Amino acid sequence: MNIIVLIKQVVATTNVKINHDTGTLIRDGVESIMNPFDEYAIEEGLRIKEKLGGKVTVITMGPPMSKEIIRKAIGMGADEGYLITDKQIAGSDTWATAYTLAQVLKKIGDYQLIITGKQAVDGDTAQVGPEVAACLDLPIISWVRKIEEISETAIRAERLMEDGYDVVESPLPALISVVKEINEPRLESLKGKMKAKKYEPIVWGVGDMPDFDTAQVGLQGSPTRVVKTFTPAREYNGERIEGNAAQAAAVLSQKIKALNIIK
Amino acid sequence: MDNKDSKNVWIYAEQREGRLSSVTHELLGAGRKLADDLGQKLTAVLLGNGMRPAADELIAFGADQVFYLDSPLFDKFQDEPYAEALTRLAQEHKPAIFLAGATAIGRSFIPRVAAQLKTGMTADCTSLEIDPDKKLLLGTRPAYGGNIMATIVCPERRPQMATVRHKVMKPLARDDSRQGEVIEKTIGENELTLRARVVNIVKEMEDTCNITEADIIVAGGRGVGNRENFRMVHDLAAAIGGAVGASRAVVDAGWVPYSHQVGQTGKTVCPKIYFALGVSGAIQHLAGMQSSDIIIAINNNPDADIFKVATYGIVGDIHEVVPEMVKCFKNGA
Ligand SMILES: Cc1cc2nc3c(=O)[nH]c(=O)nc-3n(C[C@H](O)[C@H](O)[C@H](O)COP(=O)(O)OP(=O)(O)OC[C@H]3O[C@@H](n4cnc5c(N)ncnc54)[C@H](O)[C@@H]3O)c2cc1C
Ligand SMILES: Nc1ncnc2c1ncn2[C@@H]1O[C@H](COP(=O)(O)O)[C@@H](O)[C@H]1O
After folding, report:
1. Which ligand is nearest to the CA of A38?
2. Which of A21, A140, A145 would you mutate first to test chain B, the one with the most B CBs within 10 A?
3. B63 vs A75, B11, B55, B144, B171, CA distance in Å?
4. Into how many domains does chain A fold?
5. Domain boundary among B186, B204, B239
6. To which H or E segment does residue B110 belong?
7. Nearest ligand to the CA atom of A39
């Protein structure tokens, strides 16, 4: 079973600082991490490999420093990692990213399952997975919280919905996106870390893919543009309710009842 | 698709098990305004199995035109036939704008439609406007866990696609005298691709109590102390008819299931009232709830960040205040 996990390096959002003059992110000295959801994706890939045998390959598209997360994946137990990096793909939006990843997957070819995180915590779009599936015309199961059964040719998984879950069956190859509930990602083993230290990812640029259409990617080729960024205006007009517990509770409940929302 | 001849505003009318989702009415409200600003039509697209009567409801809530596609394949939400049907319809009729709810359904299959149409898509918008000069859709959305807002456009390709956050847009009042056109089409079982198929639907109402649809949410954080004390959050929720939410710290500790988690890696909610009990207000938590209408924070630390977004705040011990609140609502609420 050949499993491919798509992973992304992101800025750790606990440390996000905004330049209030420009409304942009201050990246200097900010720690970069593997997108937390992608750790669940790798873990699930490793568990399937442990059951069925095969290989887990990770792919990331990003700047050269994204090698760090490939090494982390190797440390966790992944077998191989690809870094897709090229000036021409810088600034790609979700569609252009999905197009690029799809070209990479077409060239790699031999896979049965693609796993992505639910979303990347930088853009929070959750679009790249479904768009990659569309570009490759693969079936998709989104928001997977549990794989009930998997073989070389088929999968049955639980898709998390707002009010419960749906059980979805699909033939393979297919793409799934996973939510946090699915597993508890392992730490890198000592042996893994040693291996990772020496590991050199396979690095591809757009020239390594046949028929790659550079007009589809990068800032210029992306269908969408960011025209403005700003820090959300928060209204700090809160009212503090004083008094002891009973008094404060009484005042607050009066205010709430006056809203006529409670039935 | 490029932008020649594209016209009209479309919304995807989401349904689950034959009932229109509440986000559909909100989309009609938002779409109506965009269509009026452009001087164009508002079209709703409904995929269903025996749901023709719901098409009239879509008109009563603001649509000028409804495409109703009927198929046994549309009984349950399945990405491939849903996406293929919408893609074909959009290729045929060339909408300028296409909106859907940022729900589990919308966020799963609408990006597939966008990719099939080779167009751009903006996720989880909290505000939509038409640029008065260029007539482009301006979709504004939070990114980086709500630290930054970004306004995004899709200048050349069409349709301009976006998913829209739950409960942010306001529906119009129902008006059954509104006139509109319903165009019906029947699609056979074998006319669309279906590989990933839904074999079972499981409701977890007790556990999950759909917090994304609730008008009132009572959320507890680590300040509640332990699993036994978390009962108090359920008690207040029961007393005022709300759903139970939680911070990640609480979910990680195993006091409640993940389906209750609010925040960047949990659910995004926008209720009328959000109670934060012993929640510090970390940015990742705020990302999931700060667009709530009224936020009530109870925390013993006067400097807790949650007070910065709170409409009403009580500095105090939740173990004392919350039981008093429960009493107030039980007695003659
Ligand atoms: C990538 C990433 C994603 C994340 N996603 C999410 C997410 O989706 N949702 C989420 O919630 N978090 C998320 N987090 C975690 C987030 O950063 C915080 O750690 C978490 O929200 C803290 O939960 P808390 O407020 O319950 O706990 P704490 O931060 O421990 O706060 C407890 C609060 O309770 C108060 N308190 C204590 N005792 C009492 C008492 N007796 N009476 C009144 N008040 C009391 C304290 O003053 C404190 O403010 C994420 C973090 C990362 C890195
Ligand atoms: N640049 C990228 N390289 C590899 N995988 C990516 C990239 N961007 C997104 N992904 C994958 O797509 C998922 C959803 O990301 P997003 O659509 O950006 O929220 C992530 O969890 C990753 O699995």
Report:
1. 2
2. A140
3. 54, 9, 9, 34, 12
4. 1
5. B186
6. helix B104-116
7. 2
- Mutate which of A8, A10, A11, A13 to disrupt the B interface (most B C-beta within 10 Å)? A13
Residue B170 and residue B228 in one domain: no
Q: Is residue A96 part of a domain?
A: yes
Q: What is the pLDDT of residue B208?
A: 46
pLDDT of B207 reads 47
The answer to the question of residue B203 being in a domain is no
Nearest ligand 2 atom to the CA of A131 is 17
Which residues touch B151 (CB under 8 Å, ≥6 apart)? A226, A227, A228, A229, B138, B139, B140
The residue assigned the tokens 């301009």 is B160
Rounded distance between C-alpha atoms, residue A68 and residue B49, angstroms: 49
Residues B75 and B181 in one domain: yes
Tens digits of residue pLDDT in A249-262: 999 999 999 988 88
Q: What is the CATH number of the domain that holds B248?
A: 3.40.50.1220
- pLDDT 10s digits, B188-237: 999 999 999 999 999 876 544 678 889 999 999 999 999 999 999 999 99
How far does residue A129's CA lie from ligand 2's centre (Å)?
7
- Which whole number is the average pLDDT over B312-332? 91
Q: Residue A143: which of B80, B104, B116 has the nearest Cβ?
A: B104
| Domain, as residue range, for A154 | 2-221
User: A95–B116: do the CB atoms touch at under 8 Å?
Assistant: no
- Closest residue by CA, ligand 2 atom 4: A60
Cβ proximity of A82 and A104 under 8 Å: yes
Chain B residues whose CB is inside 8 A of the A226 CB are 150-152
State the Cα–Cα distance between residues A67 and A64, nearest whole angstrom: 6
A120 CB within 6 A, ligand 2: yes
Whole-structure pTM value = 0.88
- Name the 3-class secondary structure at B42: strand
Indicate if ipTM > 0.90. Answer: no
- Residues near ligand 1 (Cβ within 6 A): A 13-14, 36, 121; B 221-223, 247-250, 261-266, 278-280, 282, 284-285, 288, 299-301, 304, 317-319
Total count of domains within chain B: 2
Q: Is residue B253 part of a domain?
A: yes
